[in-house]
């Protein structure tokens, strides 16, 4: 795992965007795995700016998102499809038909999960997967548990995740209890992984992900087995890793 330490959220976002942009320049028709949450928002802002300036094009890029709340319509303002449209897809020259997010309203969950995996397969897999990390170590919506789940599946959200995400909803009772998520196998199959994190409340999760035992109790720890992971964090998020003497770039 290459660890890039940046001063703050802005610098973290710029660095992450430059890693992503390099992939798009190198391979204009690449497949990007995308994430939602506050961590990658700044990254999307930089990419949209560079697209607007004509430095980068997403015209041939295809995207698959990690996850979606079960039960939320694409136009619900807390759905991940809405987030992606609002923060990224509507701001760049990507073709709408080249973007895919699990369908939160799918009536047959098993069929939706199977179709999602088949779609990723049909694209030839993901070239670069962008990830955030939850405070409990979750990646996508793969919550801590007794085993790693391979493919796209439906999860019961952990109480701590519901609590962490409640700030975006009118009341905690409005937060969906379940979500569709790519599995750990989908994530590990990506050729490159780019993990972004900022803030002191991610320090423990990052430390466990990068240095702790590889265990489904900290889903992010599986990233230690991937051959090409870049972790871009700000100083606060990386504080536990740097205190432990883990080498970082920058
Ligand atoms: C959410 C998402 C994850 C995200 C994580 C952290 O629950 N499902 O994909 O990485 O929480 O979010 P944030 O970046 O807002 O802290």
Topology record:
Elements (H helix, E strand, L loop, with lengths): L1 E5 L2 H18 L4 E4 L6 H12 L9 E4 L1 E3 L10 H8 L11 E2 L8 H14 L5 E4 L21 E4 L2 H7 L12 E4 L2 H6 L2 E6 L5 H9 L17 E6 L4 H5 L7
Parallel strand pairs: 1-10, 2-3, 2-6, 3-5, 6-9, 9-10
Antiparallel strand pairs: 4-8, 7-8
Helix pairs in contact: 1-2
Structure description:
- With 250 residues, the chain is of the alpha/beta class.
- 32% of the residues lie in helices and 17% in strands.
- The chain has 8 helices and 10 strands.
- The strands form 2 sheets. The protein has a 7-stranded parallel sheet, with helices on one face.
- Helix 7 links the parallel strand 9 (192-197) and strand 10.
- The relative contact order is 0.19.
- The model has no long low-confidence stretch (mean pLDDT 97).
- The structure holds 2-amino-2-deoxy-6-O-phosphono-alpha-D-glucopyranose.
- The site of 2-amino-2-deoxy-6-O-phosphono-alpha-D-glucopyranose (GLP) has 14 residues, from helix 5.
- 2-amino-2-deoxy-6-O-phosphono-alpha-D-glucopyranose binds at residues 35-39, 66-67, 132-134, 140-141, 161, 165.
């Amino acid at each position: 795992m290459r660890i890039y330490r940046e001063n703050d959220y802005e610098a973290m976002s710029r660095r992450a965007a430059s890693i992503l942009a390099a992939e798009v320049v190198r391979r204009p028709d690449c497949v990007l795995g995308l994430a939602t949450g506050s961590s990658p928002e700044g990254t999307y802002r930089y990419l949209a700016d560079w697209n607007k300036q004509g430095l980068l094009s997403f015209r041939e890029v295809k995207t698959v998102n990690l996850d979606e709340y079960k039960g939320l319509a694409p136009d619900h303002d807390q759905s991940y499809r809405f987030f992606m449209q609002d923060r990224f897809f509507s701001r760049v020259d990507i073709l709408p038909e080249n973007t895919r997010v699990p369908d939160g309203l799918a009536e047959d969950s098993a069929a939706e999960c199977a179709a999602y995996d088949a779609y990723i397969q049909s694209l030839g897999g993901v070239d670069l997967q962008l990830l955030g990390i939850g405070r409990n170590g979750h990646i996508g919506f793969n919550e801590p548990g007794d085993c790693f789940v391979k493919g796209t599946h439906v999860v019961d959200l952990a109480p701590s995740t519901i609590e962490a995400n409640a700030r975006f909803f009118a009341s905690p009772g409005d937060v969906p209890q379940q979500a569709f998520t790519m599995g750990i196998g989908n994530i590990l199959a990506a050729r490159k992984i780019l993990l972004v994190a900022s803030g002191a409340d991610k320090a423990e999760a990052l430390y466990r992900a990068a240095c702790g035992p590889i265990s489904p109790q900290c889903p992010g720890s599986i990233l230690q087995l991937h051959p090409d992971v870049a972790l871009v964090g700000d100083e606060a998020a990386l504080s536990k890793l740097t205190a432990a003497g883990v080498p970082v770039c920058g």
